[in-house]
Amino acid sequence: MFKDLHEKTIDLDGSIRGFGDKRFFSFNMVEEGNPFVMLQCVDDEQIGFLTADPFYFFADYCFDLSDGDKDKLGIESTDEVLVLNIVTIRNPFHASTINLLAPIVINSATRKGLQLVLPSNSHYDTAAPLFANNAMERKGFAAHADRG
Amino acid sequence: MLIVARKKGQSIIVNDEIEILITSIDGDQVKVGIKAPAEVKIFRKEVLEAIEINNKQSMTSMSLNEIKKLLNNAQSE
Question: Are B71 and A143 a contacting pair at CB < 8 A?
């Protein structure tokens, strides 16, 4: 599913709060098998977000998709649903956090996505430590960077 | 902005489908009940502001290649 979207453009329809005029983002997997995806704004390359597959780091992460959001995204089956959460890069990188309260839900068939805000009773954090469960130590996340 | 004074127990109806009810007033805290169709999303303002702030803090101008290098360096620490 991630592969289907690699290097394609997705339409987030201005749903990234604070970036309401930004619609189209290119979806760039860091590497196959790596949970990180770079979303880069098509009309302003200075605007990008490092995102990650939340389930790689938090196996129990879950939330309901309302009927309204399902309709907005045109989702007909769970197979089409891809979730990414925005990572706040910190120094050192191991101190980085992820916003579990506002997932970006993407319909991989239509390439439309929305940043959703989960209800307050979900108790998820906007800055959950990414490496709390030592996922990286177990699985690794190095990527092959191009030379230069 | 419409400013309306309400006493406890009084309501405001928005767009014929959302009802805002003042359920209690206790010193400087007002409890507000909101009845709305399921598809209407209701959030405390500060929650949405926190997400906007987090998005802006997370925005990066790094290129994909720079990100790959960052991840590689972090992995080898």
Answer: yes
